[in-house]
Specification:
The structure is a single chain. The protein is of the alpha+beta class. The chain is 41% helix and 12% strand. It contains 14 helices and nine strands. The strands form two sheets. The chain has a seven-stranded antiparallel beta sheet with strand order 6-7-8-3-5-4-9. A two-stranded antiparallel sheet has the order 1-2. Strand 4 and strand 5 form a beta hairpin.
């Protein structure tokens, strides 16, 4: 939880990204994403790339300022050697963090590589010790200075690709957003911050960790089940992952699609869907995504006339029943129109103003319940027991537009 959230004029709050809580959360998020990516890769490498002095003893330019082109060229060579050795186009995915050392400000790179085939046969490795003697390497020893023919600027060092290794690399991922002006006078202030020493670049297509998320969602879809909350347990990771941004959206939209499929096949929500919904607290955007899907990709979301016509047809059909609705029809109508949240058909036909009106009304209702006992859940349960319809229902509602 951010200790110093920023607040906009409309009352919306966002994380500051500067406090210790935000920093810890960002680092933890990236450790979890790398742990998830590791589960989809056959080989994972944690390595560090350094720069040696020039032949005349001077410091090379790339050791004084970040030169990301060196990393790009390195990755290009790795991919080329990978294709030549394994005779297959293999995707090399990465997370790289550049750092300026706190003592002399010398640039070096920390990197995590994910691949489906072994990288150790690529190029030539040799030991690089203080006496400058070199001998060939058998395997890839950890915590040893090595030369690698693919990285010609200095020595490389490998580390165990476990949670500790990920944490060591990813502690530098936060340096790219901080400089002296952001940390002076705070507990994080140190010499490394004086250098404003950070650059962070991950693979983007797809995002790191996304493939594991897709695999997990596919397994849940086969079972027509969802998780009880958004705290995700990743095998091999000691703590839980509370996903953010793009991958959080992927989880929530995936849960929404699974639940929609379950309602079509079973006529009711997935087991634990209610627990998942109420675990989201008062985050309107998350709740909206879980209940109604991606509003931006709905085909008819801007076609209000189409939704109004659909509502008129539904109302006319209800009034045209010769002997009135059956008990089963009444139950189905209450399940659709008598809940605290309007159904997906109604909600997707709302204008942005009407959506805002609904959420304002909803949170005002929850304020009447015990704040210590999940008020949103209490209100949802109470409302479902009533005989009336949701006031924002397009067919039966009476809320003003």
């Amino acid at each position: 939880m951010c200790s110093n959230p920023l607040q906009f004029k409309d009352g919306t709050q966002v994380s500051c990204r500067e406090c210790d809580e935000c920093i810890s959360r960002r680092k933890g998020d990236w450790i979890a994403r790398c742990a998830a990516e590791k589960l989809t890769a056959n080989f994972v490498y944690v390595l560090h790339l350094t720069y040696a002095d020039n032949a005349n003893g001077t410091t090379p330019d790339s050791a004084e300022v970040f030169n990301y082109k060196d990393v790009q060229l390195f990755l290009k060579k790795v991919r080329k050697a990978y294709k030549k050795h394994h005779e297959v186009d293999g995707e090399i995915r990465f997370v790289v963090a550049g750092e300026k050392g706190s003592q002399n400000g010398r640039v070096h790179w920390h990197m995590i590589l994910f691949s489906q085939k072994d990288l150790s046969p690529l190029g030539t490795f040799k030991y690089f010790d203080k006496g400058m003697r070199r001998k060939k390497v058998v395997g890839l020893p950890v915590n040893e200075r090595l030369t690698w023919s693919i990285w010609t600027h200095g020595f490389v060092m490998f580390q165990e690709p476990d949670e500790r290794g990920f944490a060591y690399v990813l502690k530098y991922c936060i340096k790219d957003q901080f400089g002296l002006q952001k940390t002076e006078g705070k507990r994080r202030f140190n010499k490394a911050d004086i250098a404003a020493a950070g650059m962070f670049r991950p693979s983007l297509q797809p995002p790191i960790g996304a493939r594991w998320v897709e695999q997990e969602l596919a397994q849940l879809r086969d079972k027509l089940a969802v998780k009880p909350n958004i705290n995700i347990k990743i095998p091999g990771l000691r703590s839980y992952w509370y996903p953010r941004a793009t991958l959080r959206k992927k989880w929530l939209l995936g849960f929404h699609e699974i639940n929609e499929e379950a309602k079509k096949k079973r006529g009711k929500d997935c087991p634990q869907f209610s627990s998942l919904l109420h675990s989201l607290g008062d985050t309107t955007k998350d709740i909206e995504m879980l209940l109604y899907g991606d509003m931006k990709t709905e085909k008819d979301m801007a076609d209000g006339a189409a939704w109004e016509e659909k509502a008129r047809r539904m109302e006319a059909r209800a009034k045209g029943e010769a002997n009135g609705p059956t008990e089963w029809q009444r139950r189905q109508e209450h399940k659709r129109c008598g809940q605290s949240h309007p159904c997906k058909a109604c909600y997707h036909g709302f204008s942005e103003k009407r959506r805002d009106q609904f959420w304002t009304w909803y949170w005002e209702q929850t304020d009447q319940f015990d704040p210590e006992q999940n008020p949103a859940k209490q209100f949802d349960i109470w409302f479902a027991k009533q005989t009336g319809k949701n006031p924002f229902c397009t067919v039966h509602g009476n809320a003003p537009f």
